[in-house]
């Protein structure tokens, strides 16, 4: 389903020592042992989820579409990027008078953004899905404070029927509020961290509300779960991707540039950056994840990638089949010198551009990983995201890093709370 | 106007050797000597441009706004990012039924994008600004081939009055076509490279058409030109920024993370990545430019920046005064624990978040540069972009790199043309 290739010598990487290392990681992973094993709920999530859970998501999405023109999804980090990645990959670039929109808030703290958002939805019917495990993560809490008031001012009692909460099952500020006001609730599972949560209600409710087929998304994820659970270092693309990037890291390639020729995958790249950056970037280790979109960025960072400092590895995420496409035609006047391309589809042009770019960067000293995805639809995106999550676990364990914690995000939060004199932090 | 600070010891950086190096770069730059001196047209562009040039831009923008509902700007790289950066910085996040829209094409090769774009503008009146020095850069040429046909099919003869061309003054495919069809023409100057072209017609026409004040933009740029031309290593922020980042590069900080708390500056960051990456990334040298938006990415790459591999330097682009803003209020039910913030504006929250983040990342071993901009409006953005261009010249010359060429972008192009058997490339 996903094909991973490497520009160098695979046999050298997959030597017996590395394979036995990967084997033991595999065994620990599936035995749910090893660092962070309390957060492995995502590993068999696609095969474990119940029909009634999924039906509830779909029914609620339908209810939201009936009652509203706009769903505002409030979340940050893993409570934002999974849904955003899938929706951006699947929705059209332009829409005339969209029937239903999914917009986001709480992914930053911008007064202008929130104000303009509230103004924008003035003449539309609104529903809200607020996603936060604790309910006290500052950014979504700020956005929800404004939007909750907006909804109560606008809808009165009825606001409660338009607010959907995705939070902890048993505790927390948002759970208490939801119970008090009678908001419909969905669960952020205890054993799935934010950046691994796209297939839980965190990702599924916004994706379903946006009109996409969550059955197919989960079918793709389950296919990945099944296929990628086998230990086969040479043929399991998740293990292969992890092994290659780790070998390159050991050789001093410490920046990974994830390149795609499909602009719709920009937020899949953002999601990938969180997944890998937050999983691996600890103890002064880890590959720094960076993204580019080609051919756009061939006219920007391309020069650096070709000729700059040689600590870059490039991984190309290539889509094999186009969705909508156009074909170049012959023009009477060939001033632009493009007649030689008549009959070529734009997708085929991009595939050739990939080949030409890959060769050029390789000759510039940038080692490469190719990741080929058949097409961009719910099923294949579901497969891809599961693939990246699983590979990330292998990759982190190869660095002796716990993939499932994020100790480094506390320090800036504590600083901010101290500076703002949050109760409990004033004295320090 | 712009204040640059450094987390380390400035005196150590600005030692006598470095200062005399910078002095000689300064002298060569303003004497228009040194590598790439044929491309220094941008240096005194703001003070050199004529009233009639500017009046022509503004009149044309007005004409476009009268005849059309949508301007499609076709360009890539420097013919795209300057206008995009300024427009995104200044336009609102959301607009209900916008009166006039500026959309982009030719910045990549996506059949779905172009098809959906043509469908989107079906019921709107359309004008086009195609920007390409040669007229044969593949991506914009492809987009224009489709859109030119679209315009001719839709408007017939009248299409020629709706197409505006920004190209070479004396030669090239687009110039010839423009003369033949009678398109109104603007000039891409010979002595200004794409990534330094935002203040020429390349950037100005789309920015003016989008409804922004190009007089103020250029006033800011001219203020920067005047203020930053003086050699004063300690007080000239452009020289200071270049000196600090070069010193950090020499210490092994080879990735610069440009961080902002203002999401509207995302495309200023993209523009900056092209400017620095394409100017410096040569001869296996140069700082790799990366961008993050906070607080969004504190919940993503933040973990890596705090604790990952220590080759990162962080430059914060901080906006001191908010435009539109909101203020937090006290809520009866304090479940979200935010009442302690009542009376704080969201902009003030971001300034505190900056302080807390800066301290945290500093203690994690990430050296920092602070770049403070008073506010986001035409004048200050004009100043900022000039500042970054000038600093980039200093910074590249400190690396003994010609800031104005891009030798590494030929190889992939040649490969692509060979693979596609473009006339002239078939035999190889």
TrEMBL record, chains A, B:
<dbReference type="InterPro" id="IPR035482">
    <property type="entry name" value="SIS_PGI_2"/>
</dbReference>
<feature type="active site">
    <location>
        <position position="413"/>
    </location>
</feature>
<dbReference type="GO" id="GO:0016853">
    <property type="term" value="F:isomerase activity"/>
</dbReference>
<dbReference type="InterPro" id="IPR001672">
    <property type="entry name" value="G6P_Isomerase"/>
</dbReference>
<dbReference type="InterPro" id="IPR046348">
    <property type="entry name" value="SIS_dom_sf"/>
</dbReference>
<dbReference type="InterPro" id="IPR018189">
    <property type="entry name" value="Phosphoglucose_isomerase_CS"/>
</dbReference>
<protein>
    <recommendedName>
        <fullName>Glucose-6-phosphate isomerase</fullName>
        <ecNumber>5.3.1.9</ecNumber>
    </recommendedName>
</protein>
<dbReference type="InterPro" id="IPR035476">
    <property type="entry name" value="SIS_PGI_1"/>
</dbReference>
<comment type="function">
    <text>Catalyzes the reversible isomerization of glucose-6-phosphate to fructose-6-phosphate.</text>
</comment>
<keyword id="KW-0312">Gluconeogenesis</keyword>
<feature type="active site" description="Proton donor">
    <location>
        <position position="278"/>
    </location>
</feature>
<comment type="similarity">
    <text>Belongs to the GPI family.</text>
</comment>
<dbReference type="Pfam" id="PF00342">
    <property type="entry name" value="PGI"/>
</dbReference>
<comment type="pathway">
    <text>Carbohydrate biosynthesis; gluconeogenesis.</text>
</comment>
<keyword id="KW-0963">Cytoplasm</keyword>
<comment type="pathway">
    <text>Carbohydrate degradation; glycolysis; D-glyceraldehyde 3-phosphate and glycerone phosphate from D-glucose: step 2/4.</text>
</comment>
<keyword id="KW-0413">Isomerase</keyword>
<keyword id="KW-0324">Glycolysis</keyword>
């Amino acid at each position: 389903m996903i094909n991973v290739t490497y520009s160098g010598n695979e046999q050298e990487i997959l030597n017996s020592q590395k394979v036995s290392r990967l084997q033991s990681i595999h065994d620990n992973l599936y035995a749910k042992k090893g660092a962070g094993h309390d957060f492995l709920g995502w590993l068999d999530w696609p095969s474990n989820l119940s029909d009634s859970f999924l039906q509830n998501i779909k029914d609620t999405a339908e209810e939201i579409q009936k009652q509203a023109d706009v769903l505002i999804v409030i979340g940050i980090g893993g409570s934002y990027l999974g849904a955003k990645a899938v929706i951006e990959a699947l929705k059209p670039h332009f829409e005339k008078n969209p029937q239903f929109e999914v917009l986001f808030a709480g992914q930053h703290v911008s007064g202008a953004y929130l104000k303009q958002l509230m103004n924008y939805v003035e003449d539309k019917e609104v529903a809200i899905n607020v996603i936060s495990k604790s309910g006290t993560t500052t950014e979504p809490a700020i956005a929800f404070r404004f939007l909750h008031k907006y909804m109560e001012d606008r809808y009165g009692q009825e606001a409660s029927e338009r607010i959907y909460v995705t939070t902890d099952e048993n505790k927390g500020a948002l759970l208490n509020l939801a119970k008090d006001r009678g908001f419909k609730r969905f669960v952020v599972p205890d054993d799935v961290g934010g950046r691994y949560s796209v297939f839980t209600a965190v990702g599924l409710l916004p994706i379903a509300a946006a009109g996409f087929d969550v059955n197919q998304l989960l079918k793709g994820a389950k296919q990945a779960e099944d296929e990628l659970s086998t230990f086969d270092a040479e043929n399991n693309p998740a293990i292969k991707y992890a092994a290659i990037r780790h070998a390159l890291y050991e050789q001093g390639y410490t920046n990974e540039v994830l390149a795609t020729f499909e602009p719709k995958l920009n937020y899949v790249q953002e999601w990938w950056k969180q997944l890998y950056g937050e999983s691996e970037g600890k103890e002064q280790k880890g590959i720094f994840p960076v993204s580019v979109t080609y051919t756009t960025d061939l006219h920007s960072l391309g020069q650096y990638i070709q000729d700059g400092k040689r600590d870059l590895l490039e991984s190309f995420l290539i889509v094999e089949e186009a969705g909508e496409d156009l074909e170049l035609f012959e023009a009477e006047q060939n001033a632009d010198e493009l007649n030689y391309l008549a009959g070529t589809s734009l997708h085929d042009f991009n595939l050739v551009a990939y080949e030409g770019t890959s060769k050029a960067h390789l000759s510039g000293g940038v080692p490469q990983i190719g990741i080929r995805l058949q097409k961009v639809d719910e099923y294949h995106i579901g497969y891809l995201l599961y693939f990246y999550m699983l590979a990330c676990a292998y990759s982190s364990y190869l660095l002796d890093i716990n993939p499932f914690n994020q100790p480094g995000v506390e320090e800036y939060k504590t600083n901010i709370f101290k500076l703002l004199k949050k109760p409990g932090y004033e004295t320090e």
